[in-house]
Amino acid sequence: MSPQPTRIGFLAAPTQLATESRARLVARYGDCPLDQAEIVVSLGGDGFMLETLHRFLGRTMPVYGMNCGSVGFLMNSHNEDDLPRRLAEAQPASLHPLRMTAVTAGGAVHEALALNEVSLLRELRQAAKIRISVDANVRLRELICDGVLIATPAGSTAYNLSAHGPIVPLTANLLPLTPISAFRPRRWRGALLPSTAEVLFEVLEPEKRPVAAVADSFEVRDVVSVAVHEDRSIQATVLSDPGQGLSERIIIEQFTA
Fold it and tell me: Which of 97, 135, 169, 246 has the highest CB neighbour count under 10 A?
């Protein structure tokens, strides 16, 4: 067990439950400025946890999520008692984001990081047409679909699972590539790619069939190409209560009806 932290920073989602919990926790354990904290406690749901992790990407700051939302897959139970001991006993998991480089029809280049997934989505009523290359080899000349996504292992239980993609263990070094409502080829169910893969999505007929690219919550519209790879030079550290680590939750999710 690590020493119990004394410098704890708190962030709360803009909800009544989260803000009231933060006020009580600050009264009990102090309010350390975030730039001086040893650990950040994120109070909210999975969405706010992702915002918090993005805020501290590339830093050594571990984040402990406390569920004040609905699903709370990334979160620990909401219990305000004996918090320093819980933080000292918490198990770390390192997450590496996907780096998206999106080029728009106007030539603008946008970069963003995604801890869950990078998704391409049709903007209008017509299906998108997308060419997919992996490591400079064209693997699918034309995917006609509502969209396509590539997820991290941590994100494989999120949008990827809803799109019928596979759940990937945290240490598997695999990235699921999953179509969203594929029309042609109708039976293509996606692929599992090594974490070293360089993936390129090229939008076909972009004027007629415009496509948006989304890296977690960052959206770029009217893209013509999107390159994605895992950036192992950057990491986020998620803390979980003993026996409820992120790896264990991902395994449990595979046996949940």
Answer: 97
Q: Are strands 147-151 and 117-122 parallel, antiparallel or unpaired?
A: antiparallel
Q: Are 12 and 19 in contact (CB under 8 A)?
A: yes
Supply the range of the domain harboring residue 44.
Answer: 8-96+235-253
Residue 2 lies in a domain: no
Structure-derived torsion over alpha carbons of residues 205, 206, 208, 210, reported in degrees to the nearest 10 = 140
What does the pLDDT look like over 91-110, one tens digit per residue? 999 999 999 999 999 999 99
Residue with tokens 């439950």: 17
Looking at residue 78, which CATH number applies to its domain? 3.40.50.10330
CA–CA distance from 27 to each of 30, 58, 77, 103 (Å)? Answer: 6, 30, 20, 48
For residue 152, give the amino acid letter. T
What positions carry a catalytic annotation?
46
Question: For 111-157, how does the pLDDT look when each residue is reduced to its tens digit (9 = 90+)?
Answer: 999 999 999 999 999 999 999 999 999 999 999 999 999 999 999 99
We report the CATH number of the domain holding residue 116 as 2.60.200.30
